[in-house]
Amino acid sequence: MTYDITVIGAGIVGCSIAYRLSKYKAKVLVLDKENDIANEVTMANSAIVHAGDDPEDGTLKAKLNLRGAELYTGLLEKLHVRYRQTGAYTVMTSPEQEETFNALVKRTSIRHIPYEILDGDTARRNEPNLSDKVIKVLSIPSTRVIIPWEFAEAEMEVALRNGVELKLNTEVKGIRKDEEDDGYVLTTNHEEIRTRYIVNAAGLFSDEIAAMIGTEVPKILPRKGEYFVLSHNARDYVSHIIYPMPTAKGKGVLAVPTVDGNVLLGPDSEYTDTKEENNNTTAGLGIVRAQLTEILKNIPYPEVIRIFAGLRPSTAYKDFYIEKDPFHAGIVHLAGIDSPGVASAPGIAEYVENLLNLPYEIDETRDMTREKPFDFSALSIEEKNDFIHAHPEYGHIVCRCEQISEGEIVEAIHRPVGAKTVKGVKKRVRPGMGKCQGGFCEPLVVDILARELNIPKEEVLYDSLSSHILTKREER
Ligand SMILES: Cc1cc2nc3c(=O)[nH]c(=O)nc-3n(C[C@H](O)[C@H](O)[C@H](O)COP(=O)(O)OP(=O)(O)OC[C@H]3O[C@@H](n4cnc5c(N)ncnc54)[C@H](O)[C@@H]3O)c2cc1C
């Protein structure tokens, strides 16, 4: 197989790059080792499109966060992706933090990000669960939350429609110069792929991908962050994203109201020596709890329905590393794409496109928009009733916690970047995201997947190729 450009990694960054490159008259391929797009770092984070006030001056992070936040404004509309403009409160809880607070305000102002400074009592009137210790607040109304995998899916959908190819379960295992042509040969677990250009957007593994061609990029030092998820019952606990004062360790432990009406509490920040495991720990969750008490009160822990952890692909370089390979023309490596990687993704994609400086023509007729997806949950009761008369599968509720119907699950399976696993369905339409965490609906989702994919139930996967749910059929 021969391609013009191959993007390694279908996280939010790889999908953003594929979306941008899909306007070229070129054969573009995206590879991912996982069984779904956006299954690694993009799947477990705080999901904030930071406004761009936090990264240090002069960094690529500052430049691309600001540009990314700007590009999101148009893209969220163009691609019809859901978001919530919650705004953010960065809270000061002691006079010793005054210097950091003032520096942050100065940076926000210089970067032309609209802001307001509130005293503690005014902020508590808007956010009654802010700690009594909060003295002053930097309010940034433009901060948004998205669902990073939903955004990645929307971009990939457009890219596929424009001719990009996506190969999942395809792990790059080696890269060598093509002896016969002016390009490279990628060895994967399935086949050899010839390509002229390579974009290494492999997240936690981008240092290993670079090493395959003998190039050293900053070593990835995985940094774990752990979270609590609160149920919808606690949806009003906070209405803004609440940040503490940033420290050398990062943005700190936050409270984040999500697009779907949950609240995330976390993450801590601990280096770990594995890229494969992101399990929760008593110690990590203990740090989250301890740090939250500095900025919030009345934390409704009985409403915790889930804990999870994510791994940041951090480096000692501390900034995004996005560079052309110094020895191999046509290869661009991205390393250290930790926070604000979600917020910066569209800016990163633009930056990579400029670095590549491709010789291919742009097809001005390519449609870079996505039609608004049908959203059953947004209909009024009357509209739902009418719709159910014509489509009875929308009247069959599969997930009682999140009120998800069979019709919505079937639609998620048959989308252009459709769900092929239980986790894929959960990511796209939320059965299993509610209070019972799939206890009631998971067997029904397995049935629907088996029927729609036309496979036996034993072949339905939770996530990866080895994650079978039912191991054998019992004859009775
Ligand atoms: C705890 C935490 C909180 C965060 N909060 C925020 C936030 O609020 N806002 C923000 O802007 N950023 C945040 N971030 C950072 C953000 O999540 C990341 O910057 C972003 O998701 C990185 O996306 P990516 O596409 O580079 O990586 P990934 O999503 O990891 O994608 C890389 C892909 O490459 C694939 N891959 C790897 N190796 C191979 C191979 N050999 N062959 C084929 N495919 C391969 C992987 O399977 C993966 O799908 C946070 C991160 C963490 C962990």
Blueprint of the fold:
Blueprint (H helix, E strand, L loop, with lengths): L1 E7 L3 H10 L6 E4 L16 E2 L10 H19 L4 E2 L3 E5 L5 H13 L5 E4 H7 L9 E5 L3 E3 L1 H14 L3 E3 L4 E6 L6 E5 L3 E9 L5 H7 L8 E10 L10 E3 L10 E4 L5 E4 L3 E2 L10 H14 L8 E11 L6 E4 L6 E5 L5 H16 L24 H10 L6 E3 L4 E2 H8 L8 H8 L12 H12 L23
Parallel strand pairs: 1-2, 1-12, 2-9, 5-14, 12-20
Antiparallel strand pairs: 3-8, 4-8, 5-7, 6-7, 10-11, 11-12, 13-16, 13-17, 13-18, 15-16, 19-20, 21-22
Helix pairs in contact: 1-5, 1-8, 2-8, 10-11, 10-12
The protein binds flavin-adenine dinucleotide.
Overview of this structure, please?
The chain has 476 residues and is an alpha+beta fold. It folds into three domains: 1-82 and 144-219 and 315-371, 3-Layer(bba) Sandwich (FAD/NAD(P)-binding domain); 88-141 and 221-310, D-Amino Acid Oxidase, subunit A, domain 2 (D-Amino Acid Oxidase, Chain A, domain 2, 2-Layer Sandwich), CATH 3.30.9; 376-459, Arc Repressor Mutant, subunit A (Orthogonal Bundle), CATH 1.10.10. It is built from twelve helices and 22 strands. Strands 1, 2, 9, 10, 11, 12, 19 and 20 form an eight-stranded mixed beta sheet that branches. A hairpin with a 6-residue loop joins strand 10 and strand 11. Helix 10 packs across helix 12 (442-453). The longest helix is centred in the N-terminal third of the chain and has 19 residues, at 60-78. It is globular, with a radius of gyration of 23 Å. The chain starts with a strand and ends in a 23-residue tail after the last helix. The mean pLDDT is 96. The site of flavin-adenine dinucleotide (FAD) has 41 residues, from helix 1, strand 18 and helix 8.
